[in-house]
Amino acid sequence: MYVIIAGGGRTGAQLARILVAQNHFVQLIDSRPEVLARLHKELPTEAIFEGRPIDPLVLEKAGAEKADVLAACTTEDEVNLAICFMARSRYKVPRTIARINNPRNAWLFDHKFHVDVAVNQAEIMASIIEEEMSLGDMMTLIKLRRGNYSLVEEKVPADAPALGIAIKDLNLPEHCVIAAIIRHGEVIVPRGITTFEPGDEVLAVADPEGARQLAKMLSPNKVGNGRTGNGV
């Protein structure tokens, strides 16, 4: 894959390192001498292209016409928007990604400026915090590329409400599928009559609501809350 990255700051440089390690062809564009000096210590020389990312001639020389993806990672939102607009309208780049620096500008990053994916770091962090708080001990292993689904994992405690109940009788949410159970180091393919045991590691594919409901079924039973009356 041919990837052009506009902006050699920490975000752009980290992205370039990952893509180079995955054997993609990368052209990271920046014009600042101090940034270029750092980049030459972190990346192969052939992955670095000197010039102003917003300059059409620079984009053209960096190979915009044959790029599969362009990621605009500069620290200026207006520059990122302009680069994405040029990439699509002038060079027909199939896929554009733009970094949002100021969350107040997020509404601008859409099809009008030919932005396919807008990366709003504040929004991502808020989403992660909300998800982690709502899922309790459940862990999100990976976000699936298609749809609003994730692969999640949770270890079943000794007093989970779902213990001893066949999977077919659990009334699982519509958008939640038990993919596998890891028990004593062995992988079990779940069937309708399979029941959970304490210590099982449950892997499931679910949307956010399905994951929340499954987390309730696999969380410790809080009935009684461990109290013995009158606070004694």
UniProtKB/TrEMBL annotation:
GO MF entries: potassium ion transmembrane transporter activity
Keywords from the named record: Ion transport, NAD, Potassium, Potassium transport, Transport
Pfam families referenced in this protein's UniProt entry, alphabetically: TrkA_C, TrkA_N
InterPro entries: K_uptake_TrkA, NAD(P)-bd_dom_sf, RCK_C, RCK_C_sf, RCK_N, Trk_Ktr_HKT_K-transport
Keyword Ion transport: yes
Domain RCK C-terminal span(s) in chain numbering: 139-220
Keyword NAD: yes
GO CC terms in record: plasma membrane
Ranges of residues in domain RCK N-terminal: 1-119
PROSITE patterns, alphabetized: RCK_C, RCK_N
Coiled coil: none
SUPFAM superfamilies membership: NAD(P)-binding Rossmann-fold domains (SSF51735), TrkA C-terminal domain-like (SSF116726)
Identification of the protein by name: Trk system potassium uptake protein TrkA
Record organism: Bellilinea caldifistulae
Lineage of the species this protein comes from: Bacteria, Bacillati, Chloroflexota, Anaerolineae, Anaerolineales
